Amino acid sequence: MATTIPTSAFIATPLRCSTGRSSAIWVQKAQFSASSSSLGVSLSLKRPSLRLVSVRCETNGAGMPVIPAEERWMYEESEINGPDIWNKTWYPKAADHVNTEKTWYIVDASDKILGRMASTIANYIRGKNLATYTPSVDMGAYVIVINAEKVAVSGQKRSQKLYRRHSGRPGGMKIETFDQLQKRIPERIVEHAVRGMLPKGRLGRTLFTHLKVYKGSEHPHQAQKPIPLPIRDKRIQFVKK
Amino acid sequence: MNKDKIFKLAKGFRGRAKNCIRIARERVEKALQYSYRDRRNKKRDMRSLWIERINAGTRLHGVNYGNFMHGLMKENIQLNRKVLSELAMHEPYSFKALVNVSRTAFPGNNAVPKKEGLSSIL
After folding, report:
1. What's the confidence (pLDDT) of residue A167?
2. Are A152 and A112 in contact (CB under 8 A)?
3. A223 touches chain B (CB under 8 A)
4. Which neighbouring-strand residues pair with A177?
5. Which Gene3D superfamilies does the record cross-reference, listed alphabetically (chain B) (predicted)?
6. Tell me: the pLDDT tens digits for A119-162?
């Protein structure tokens, strides 16, 4: 007869501290120890085998030291019970957006419609896919684009879409079509598209540096272990008619 | 007497606006106008930030913000957007349960049309 360990014992309250918040939640997920139930032997377990709080007697539920009732007037509310997460909107601390711990995504641009791909890339770079999105803070991920010279556009854009730039001097406007620019500097096409979709300003310029575009299928970021970018747009694949 | 109050409010301003009374007075008046307006704008901005966060949180589960809120209204769940956004960030499992509640109440545009009769077996 297998013992059933009460699962309520494992569902601990999430840590109130913001550093490493997301990892704390996932660590404290209810862990079902299936091993003891498969033994088929009735074991009397007095305590759960996994201790989620190290020293229970000296801390309260928020992981802070217990303050006796007589001394409570000396402390502020946030020191007694921990920071108030339900009445103050969360704002990320520096430890919540460290660049070295951000995810890296990779997209293969071959035969993808330029604008639709750039839109999803910009969303991920800005961090709009995360519930912790903050407009004033860089919470997004890094994105690598490979095979940038194979990006596709529909209609007559390949010969008709113009890329303009101006040197600043009178008469200094330079105009190029899509295929001319693709022959010259193919990365610029994807960069131009994504830059137009990122916010313009100081933060937008730093976000733009998180986009890495490459011409072939090789990229120097293997050490970051990029994962394929999840694309939900159904019309992003270029269909030749 | 007023000058001291003005300079006290002008702390941190750029250039002569923190030191010279004529310029500081103008800038302080403008700053007070902005703070009056922004006390009202802050409520709007906060709500839109909560909505953006809820949108991101629900899209992780395949539901967009509009359909999610419609489902919650149908079930008469009166949690406000502030609490919903904090749930989406700090309590992912509870939030997923809420998304499921909303999805059963209002399946949104992805409702698979029920096949009747012979076509349900095919």
Report:
1. 95
2. yes
3. no
4. A162
5. 6.10.160.10, Ribosomal protein L20
6. 999 999 999 999 999 999 999 999 999 999 999 999 999 999 99
Q: A83 versus B49: which is more confidently predicted?
A: B49
B45-63 tens-digit pLDDT: 999 999 999 999 999 999 9
Residues in Cβ contact with A225 at an 8 Å cutoff, skipping those fewer than 6 apart: A104
Residue count of chain B: 122
Q: Shortest CB distance from A90 goes to which of B54, B86, B93?
A: B86
- Which candidate from A25, A129, A134 shows the least CB-CB separation from B59? A129
What does the alpha-carbon distance between residue B5 and residue A219 come to, in Å, rounded to a whole number? 60
Burial class (CB in 10 A: 0-12, 13-18, 19+), A7: exposed
Residue B74 CB partners (closer than 8 Å, separation 6+): B105, B106
| Pairing mode of beta strands A162-166, A142-146 | unpaired
Which residue out of A11, A124, A130 would a mutagenesis test of the B interface target, given it has the greatest number of B Cβ atoms within 10 Å?
A130
Question: Phi-psi bin for A122: left (phi > 0), alpha (psi -120 to 50), beta?
Answer: alpha
Q: Which of A90, A128, A135 sits opposite B89 (nearest CB)?
A: A90
Of the pLDDT bands very low, low, confident and very high (cuts 50, 70, 90), residue A59 is low
Q: Dig out the tokens for B95 from the structure.
A: 């939030």
For residue A19, pLDDT over 90 is answered with no
Q: Which two tokens stand for residue B89?
A: 């960030």
pLDDT tens digits for range B11-57? 999 999 999 999 999 999 999 999 999 999 999 999 999 999 999 99
Q: Which residue has the tokens 């004033």?
A: A136
User: How many CA atoms are closer than 13 Å to the CA of A160, on its beta-carbon side?
Assistant: 5
Q: Is A14 an 8 Å CB contact of chain B? A: yes
The answer for residues whose C-beta is within 8 angstroms of residue B86's C-beta and 6 or more apart is A85, A86, A89, A90
Amino acid at the residue A112: K
Give the pLDDT band (50/70/90) at residue A239: confident
Work out the angle between the directed axes of helices A186-197 and A114-126 (0-180°, nearest 10): 60
φ/ψ (deg, to 5) at B85: -70, -35
Confirm whether pTM is higher than 0.90. Answer: no
Residue A133 near chain B (CB below 8 Å): yes
Instruction: Decide: helix, strand or coil at residue A197.
Output: helix
